[in-house]
Amino acid sequence: MKPAAATGLALLLLTAAACGTSGSSQNTTGGQITLKIWDFSMEQVEFHKKVTDQFTREHPNIKVEWRSIAQAEYKTTLPLAFQSRQSPDIFYWSENGPLNSRILLNNGWIKPLHPSGTAPDEFIKRWPQGSFIEGVNLIDGKAHGFPFTDNLYWGGGYMFMHNDVFKQAGLDPASPPRTFSELKAACAKIRSATKAECITSPNKGADVMRLFDSFAGVVMNGSGFDLKNGRFSLDDPKILSTFNFIQELNKAGYIAPGTNDKNFSRQQFAAGQAAIYFDGTWMPSVWTSQGFTSDKYSVAAQPLPDAGRTGAPGREPNLEKYFVSSQTGNHDAAWTFLDWMTKPDGFFVQEYYKGGFGTLSYADNKKMVTDPALRKIMEIAETPGFRVNIPVPLLKCPDLARSKAYQSAISKRPDWASEIITETLNNGGTLDAAAKELVTARQSALEEGLKAEAASGLKVSMDCYTFPDFDYVTDYGLDRY
User: Fold this and answer.
1) Same domain, 284 and 217
2) Which of 87, 106, 247, 452 has its CA 20 to 30 A from that of 377?
């Protein structure tokens, strides 16, 4: 799991697009304020229409325009909107892990949630104690973001199985493959007994990491950065062994061929052209939007190495997603909407769960979730050790909020890992040399960047990213900083 998991492209765009923080003029239509919201949740368009209609009924002086943009396009469109001073009033951004609020603030994109700067206690108390942390979503005591999705259930690490394809192969989805060997054996049966692919997974661009990190998450905490030893981890023997297993599946013809994006792979699974798809908590809503209901597929945990789990997908303190734009001229209206949106028993919450879109951090998930697949996901995630709290370098070294060393280390070639993984899968070779080259270059850039920042007065060093007492499978509590 990468600390401050920022994509280099996103950070470059953020830096390039940083603007002043003076507000834009107020948008009004016939006496109504027009509040603009942007995100990339294309599957939630109808849900957002219900939300905006209901909100305007309750607040007739505010008209909400909610725009969803395809994810790849969004990462370019939003920075350009800030650059041209045409940003929305509220926007979605989830690239930077615990540094999300700080990076967005440093780049001039956000204001505090509340116009006064201080969110009311009634608002803060909607979340479990400890959800608002200075340096993470509180900056100088002012809330700039709030946890949206929860951090136990939400994330990757789930295996979706097409019930009919499994049954055609003589397999029972209620008894899923639990180890790498069992997965390979199941694929052999699927290949021999059906016309379907065994595993479909996107391998176009950065999406190839969805499959890779699903497997890497159970041997470390992902393939990006080793927080125990303070180093980029793609060349770690456990990670390379994991890649070799995926390569074995690919060579055996168990992974669907072609250069496919996530939409194609998901449709392939829903159409019964593949038996297995690996992804995250958000998938039940995606399947529903495709008319593929939860009685037609089953969910299980990601299979483990034959020798057992040595890592677990990581949990970070919170998952901030929605922010108030620094350019808004409608700060009061933006706060009114976010306050309304986060009422634990409010319209937004009720409709969100009806749509099966996932789990929220400020609502009672046990009470609200009704979708059988999502309930199964929750059951899996509650298994001890399935997901662990990972160390947060920012909490060890608050000056990392002003550091650019890590971002610079990954920004020069932001898609490097996905590029070499795709290339190696396609040519059938090994990842070792290419992974070592990546790690050497990024590690050197990180170390040199931190040294330069330390010389300028920041209290940063490689020690900030190194937690020798972390074992990859045990929660790293907030009391250890």
Assistant:
1) yes
2) 247
